[in-house]
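pinging the channel bc i need a second pair of eyes. not urgent but kinda urgent?? the chain im working w is below, pasted from the shared doc
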Amino acid sequence: MRWIIVLLAAIGIYASAAALREHYRVGESPCSINDKWDCGIVNKSPYAMIHGVPVADIGIAGYILLMILAILKRFRVLLVAALIGLGFSIYLANIEAHVLGVWCIYCVLSLAMISLIALFSLAALSLQAFQKKGTAA
């Protein structure tokens, strides 16, 4: 299960790196699909920075942390970190939906990855607890 989480985190790193590229891109975004899907608008908005740090950088660091925790089988800490990341991603999705009115495909991909990581972390923690309970009996 941990290797699935590692793979999902790697995809999350890719999505965050692509969003970071859009943050610094000059000119029109290649993922400007229509008036509802434009990564450039989202990643250049005032909401794309927190205290001078691009949100995409925070995503990259977060996914690296999740990857390390999965490799080390620290599923309890992994679940907590994933839930914090999921909450932050939902907050950002709310901004896309209700403030900006524009979606970023990389951000949606990241939301999907952190959602799956949270689910798989919960499953891994439950499985780990079940296995410990079985060996204690």
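so The chain has one domain: 2-131. and Strands lie at 49-50, 53-54. — does that match what u expected or am i reading it wrong
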